Amino acid sequence: MSLLFEPFEVAGIKLPNRLVMPPMGTGLPDHEGFVTDETIAYYRRRAQGGIGLISIEASLVSPDAYGVGPELRLHEEKYVPGLRRLADAVHAEGVPVGVQLWHPGRQTLLGKPIAPSAIPLSRRTPIPHELSVAEIEDLVAYYARSAVHCRDAGYDFVEVHGAHCYLPCEFLSPLSNHREDDYGGSLENRARFMLEIVAAIRAACGEDFPVFFRISGEEGADGGFGVEDTMQVSRWLEEAGVACISVSGGNWYALHLTIPPMSVERGVLVPAAARIRDVISIPVIAAGRLDDVELAERILADGQADLIAVGRALIADADWPRKVREGRREDIRPCIACNACVDLVARAEEARCAVNPEVGRDGTWHVAPANTPRRVMVVGSGPSGMEAARIARLRGHHVSLWERDPVLGGKLDVASRAPSKRTVLLFNDYQARTLARLGVDIHVGVEVTAETIDAEAPDAVIVATGAEPLVPPIPGLDSPGVVDAQEILLDRIQVEPGERVAIIGGSATGCETAEFLVGTASEIAILEMLPTVGRGIELITRQRIIKELKGAGVRILTESRVTAVEDDRVVYERPDGETETLVVDRVALAIGWRPRGPWLADALNGREVQIIGDALTPADFVAAINVGANAGLAV
Ligand SMILES: Cc1cc2nc3c(=O)[nH]c(=O)nc-3n(C[C@H](O)[C@H](O)[C@H](O)COP(=O)(O)O)c2cc1C
Ligand code: SF4
To answer: Could you tell me the distance, in angstroms and rounded to a whole number, from the CA of residue 217 to the centre of ligand 2?
Structure first.
């Protein structure tokens, strides 16, 4: 019997199972902080998938609070009608729902940052205003007022965002709290703001209105708080009347614990949740890549947590809970923990997903059957080609998919080769499995020619042939020791143990090639013209990969413009005009991509053609999946 699907109760809230959707910003509210139709459609769709409880995204509690872009607001009565429509939509699917109360504190990027002490987040962010005691009291009152609005809008609970070094967590952290009054110094003092918020909410909403609390089990940064501290804080929160503790992790300096990217192992936050659960008697929610069913079951069976957060996996596939319950795990569209979703939200854009084109257009998404089934030929099986084939087939077309390489995947296959990115294969395999199940006619290892097209006689052709490496006009790049970095990743070119390798270009491919070569090459250097490497990698993954590359001894030479490749050396110029050289055995090129040139223009002449994906503009997976889906919908 699966523990995951046992009903559960928290402070009178009845959950049909032990799976919860943790708060996740969507960028779907409007710029004034109101719920939009798209916000409602997004949450309704997730409620329909069988999740046991939903905690709506971090929502701002006071007028001075701003995060990065469109975020829900709670502090005025005018927000209540929209909030009520959202609660009603989730309730209509039989799912309990609450809202997360949020003040970003010194992580206020759009407005005026505030904090317990005037310590900036980083060298590049402004010095925050240090809160006076009167201002702290005002803010506590705003948390309570916002909670009342949520209760009045029909929510089952509120969740205080006390994690991730937003305001309450900034009070708790010795890194951001250097106060010498009642709010600073001892753990008790640093936890005071958190406990005052809880007390104020309970006083305003009534003691029977459940208050959940989210904490970072540990900050994961030098000088920050640790799990011994949060165990004590959790005891105090329980005594203060909190109904449930949700244990997340990390802070601004350790974002890999907050939203663990694919390079971080599953369940990394569970030990902290388990230790906290040991010292309290209210339920504990664990989070952090727990979409491995065996792992999630084990966490419950071992008593490490009471509830399992399914976050990004529910973005990737809203039906994740239902499919697990029905024993249809093969049908789950897997989250690859690429963090493209959070990267977009952090840039004030609407959430989209690298594997699910429905995200952000849940309300209008409709795969309409084709009026007349046609013969559709999709050339190229990268992320956009495969998605175009899938959607076109779902619409009833007769679809054939053609790939030059011996395996499906194109850029997905290349992207999965770095050790930290093997998870990408999960999605590649899912797409391949789905296409086969749907009856797409798959051809691998076939170079499509004019004859192939004539023989197929398609009614429509979707060209998704991808991009080719950019080769800049640097003298010496035609020498035999210079290779395309992709060829190394794909194991078509073997680097021998002990070789010294220079990688020209610090893009995602450059960094991944370096990671791939760690342990084989004796010396690895990345040469990048720009001041940073990791262009095109989302922030959290980039933070981590750079740290690991440096830890493994990879030399990262930024602001280094390669001017020539000669026999056994790479010549490069530093910003001060000095020329330097690196002695190497091999040079790998990872400069960038450009669309392949016109493809079989004569053979396609007179046919219905869509050119999509990297074949049109080299882009990321989110763009790829979306243009692929659009092509499938349009054909
Ligand atoms: C797009 C996105 C937005 C997020 N926004 C919030 C948020 O508003 N509040 C919060 O406490 N955590 C937020 N998180 C963290 C998640 O709640 C969750 O703890 C994290 O994604 C790890 O769980 P998972 O591996 O199941 O996704 C966000 C995560 C993502 C991916
Ligand atoms: S964008 Fe990436 S991390 Fe986010 S849900 Fe989709 S697959 Fe998962």
So the answer is: 23
